[in-house]
Amino acid sequence: MGKSRPEDQLTDLLRAATDQVARDAVQGSGSISAEQFEHLERLARTVEFRRMAQPKPRPNRWFLGLIGLTFAIVGVLLFVPVGETEIVIEVRLEEVAFRLAGDDGADDPATLRQTLLRRGTNVRMLGVSGAQHVRVRGDRDDQWPPEGSHVRLRTRDVDQPSHVTLSDVVLPAGSFIAIDPPAAAGAFTLTLGDADIEIRADMIGSVEMTAMGAGSREETFSRPRAATFHTAGDHIQLDVEVQDLSAVRFAPSIEISAISFYGSRFGRSYTSSILSGAVYLEELDGEVLELRRGQELRMDSFTGSIRALRLEPDSIELQLQGRVRGLETGSHGTPRSLMPTWLEWLASRHGLSLFWGTAFYVVGLIAAALRWFRLASA
């Protein structure tokens, strides 16, 4: 055993002397002599003087550091958003623009292309502008139309039903797509670009063909004839008119890497095209954030897919699912983040663990605080 401290030895000596005086008093006359009392008093004073001479214990500064750490943790949990979260957006828009996902180093060339529009969309009118190469295979032998023309194909039901049918619109990875608002008459505009793109339409029956600089002509096709439009790296615009907008069949899933809910309607640039909708925060048990008309919504580093895309008179409806590293609303000058904070994420995903961890931490903090104040007041 280690050697005891001097103050402990003095205390033991005082205790032993007190016990001895007590035994003598019990065994004797019951009185204490003046010499014994004086001896005990000197020992007691010596112990007290020794205790008073010792430096007072100071409260450890680690408690102040613990308080600062606590505030820092609370601040992070309350105000710092998570780095990434999963969202689902269901929204009605006036117009929308998005970019197809890139190849991400894929080895299979088939994965570098995606279907936007599915085969079988019958149109009453198809106008194509911006194509660098146009080929319309009619029954005549002459070359028509001239290269680079703006071409319009319109069905004319004369003796039999006529059709202009779009084939699959398949686009390379990274292509840009913009859809302008459909009109009540079933017309909408589709802009495609930033990639090598070819559009094909099959014609049968009576079709009026108009080309800028080449006039109009009408032909009747007894069997399907193809019209092809090609552009490389530039933009091509399709003006489409259909009998029923619900007949326009987009692919059931379109992988994208960016999307914009802004447009330039009414002559104003960068105006929110949102009519209504909602954002669902999947990692917060589907918490719903309602979107109002004209509300701004911006996403950073989006990766995901369009799960549904439908055209309605005067609006576009889409459902979007994916992950974002940033989600905010409000103007650029006063943005407001919609990303979950770490506290919200922990409460939703690890609620029980967060409760018990907080409980133990608070109890430990209270115990440390009581000890610190006791030392400080000693």
End-to-end C-alpha gap: 30 Å
Strand-pairing-aware structural class: alpha+beta
Tell me the overall shape.
Answer: rod-shaped
| Biggest sheet details | 17 strands, antiparallel
Order of helices and strands: HHHEEEEEEEEEEEEEEEEEEEEEEEEHH
Rg, nearest Å = 41 Å
Please provide the count of β strands. 24
The portion of residues forming beta strands comes to: 35-45%
The residue ranges in which pLDDT falls below 50 over 5 or more consecutive positions are none
Overall structural domain count: 4
| Overall mean confidence score, pLDDT | 81
The portion of residues assigned to helices is 25-40%
Number of helical runs?
5
Topology:
Layout lengths: L5 H22 L6 H20 L8 H18 L5 E9 L2 E5 L12 E5 L3 E3 L1 E5 L3 E4 L14 E5 L7 E4 L2 E4 L3 E4 L7 E7 L2 E16 L3 E18 L3 E6 L12 E7 L1 E2 L7 E2 L1 E8 L5 E5 L5 E4 L2 E10 L2 E10 L1 E4 L6 E2 L4 H8 L1 H27 L1
Antiparallel strand pairs: 1-18, 1-22, 2-10, 2-15, 3-9, 4-8, 5-7, 5-14, 6-13, 7-12, 8-12, 10-11, 11-14, 12-13, 15-21, 16-17, 18-19, 20-23, 21-22, 23-24
Helix pairs in contact: 1-2, 4-5
Give structural notes.
Helix 4 (342-349) crosses helix 5 (351-377). The chain is an alpha+beta fold and 378 residues long. The longest helix is centred in the C-terminal third of the chain and has 27 residues, at 351-377. It folds into four domains: 6-53; 62-80 and 347-377; 86-94 and 251-337, no CATH class; 119-249, no CATH class. The chain is built from five helices and 24 strands.
